């Protein structure tokens, strides 16, 4: 009886965890005209709504609406003739379901033994940190663990260098990739961990470490990520509390890089795309910059892994194109084809294009910065929003999709890595 009581207490705690999102509705919005696009954008701003994907004609948007704002939001949409569907009337139910599924998966594995890296869990910051330490100790010939700096709250921002030779004296091209710059995009973590697994532990394709060096940074936004494992699963930014305005905190790290900084982002700290006080004002963005500073001559491919939407996006966020845009597009298409060939049937094919043309204008992004400073091929990859087989619950993770997310993204990464290796060889003949 006591055990049963404990169980109820535990379930009660789990259910209480997402109270802050109780009654939040997830709306699918279909727009047909520019006026309707503008209305949805206006409403989202005026009501301070969390826009998961922007509605444009031919592409439905997804908007999260707090309980008390639902009537007004719906009335305005109806008055303007904008079609909408309520995908979830209470997003807390989905969050509870996600928790339940993930904890069941974790139990099957007797907790979490990362040395064998079961791909049915989303690992915490601490678990990933332990794994990276273990990896560096177990594979000293190929893996070097580096601390790029400290986050706002003082957590290490660690990455690994993988090389079959001496990384520092190597002349090979580098593939640099990172995940979790946006905290809530949990499904991006398996993509980098899977790559590490295939480059270090279960090496089945020798050529990938023969002529290519790798830099892999799994948790680019440690504080935000830790925060998203607590009360605020849908937290996106870092945890900077030093912004001087009310109680709002956090900077969108993917608007904080020094390229077109502040031109298409928000100067309001309460908003999710707040760009910070200046370019590289945030220690997390500055840590990533330090990697570019050190290895810019050799980085041939940069992949900033986000979710969601099944997209491979490239520079620049103001609709202008880099001089090698044709080649950037071509490689993007090749990577997309590699992923599409093995993707889940219910996820759409990847869309490849300029980020502003496919999505919306954005400034200060990591991938634009990389392209601008001389990385020849730089992309933001938006992983699929896996939907539990039924709907579009973009950020939520079904354990059954975790390994697939790693596996299919790896197919695209391999295509990109081999392409830049071959073009690097040609340019060095
Ligand atoms: Zn993102």
From TrEMBL:
It comes from Spodoptera littoralis. One of its GO terms (molecular function) is zinc ion binding. Pfam families: Peptidase_M14 (PF00246), Propep_M14 (PF02244). SUPFAM superfamilies: Protease propeptides/inhibitors, Zn-dependent exopeptidases. GO terms for cellular component: extracellular space. Residues 121-420 form the Peptidase M14 domain. Its cofactor is Zn(2+). PANTHER family: FI02848P-RELATED (PTHR11705:SF140), PROTEASE FAMILY M14 CARBOXYPEPTIDASE A,B (PTHR11705). The keyword Signal applies. This is Peptidase M14 domain-containing protein.
